[in-house]
Write a structure and sequence with these properties.
mainly beta; globular; 0% helix; two-stranded antiparallel sheet; Carboxypeptidase_A_C_sf; Muramoyltetrapeptide carboxypeptidase
């Protein structure tokens, strides 16, 4: 399913159209680290609101 893409695909996470719903700000940088076990670390290195 992800063959040919150069970015990770995250699924079964609490954002978008789920409950509970995490809100992700639009227009700022984000960092995501994954491992082969399926763990995901997500970080927003810049502020969404000044």
């Amino acid at each position: 399913m992800t063959r040919g893409y150069e970015f990770p695909v995250v699924y079964d996470a609490d954002f978008s159209h789920t409950d509970p719903m995490a809100v992700l700000p639009k227009g700022i940088q984000a960092e995501m680290k994954t491992d082969k076990k399926g763990s995901v670390a997500f970080r927003l290195p810049e502020r969404a609101v000044e």
